[in-house]
Amino acid sequence: MIKFENVITIQPPPHSDPRGNVINPPPIIIKDMNPILIDNPNNNTINAQIIGIPSLIPLWIGEECINKGDWTRSEAEAKLLDILGDNPAQVLRSFFPKTLEEFPNHPGTVLSKMIKSLGIIVTDSCSCRRHALEMNEKGNDWCEQNIDTIIGWLREESKKRGLPFIDTVGKLMVSRAIKKSRKLLSNQPVPENDEDLDNA
After folding, report:
1. Which of 122, 145, 165, 169 suits 54 as a labelling partner, its CA being 20 to 30 A distant?
2. SS3 at position 175
């Protein structure tokens, strides 16, 4: 059992329900933790699982795991505390999957909203969400420099869905998404009569 001097508060990322409503989960309050330790010799990993945290926290992996050999619970808990460092809330928060709703003004999220406005649903199983998250992470400059890559993603997904796709229209949508994202991120108001942004 690991006890903390101060209560740790973690705010999980927002997400959407099946109807498209944005859900803001309640914060997770941690006063102490009793991690489940998972030793997987086949994958050469020793992980910690913490209730409320969706991803496993790797303690030792690969060569480090092999060289570790036998280990004790106290060693594993000490390693976990070392990983959590001086800001355990921030570190634990990083083990939540990123969501589009977490970054509403980033290019991938803006483009996803534009696509949704056309009646095309972004699902967890399609590649759209993964690519949108990548766009969010890499930012507007990367998106602008790699617009052909993004158009290729849209073309590929359209083909999977049996939908028509025109490269020039795809390029226009991506350009508009980047333009709107830049305005939103710089806190500039988006003109209501800007036809380029009506579908965003």
Report:
1. 122
2. helix
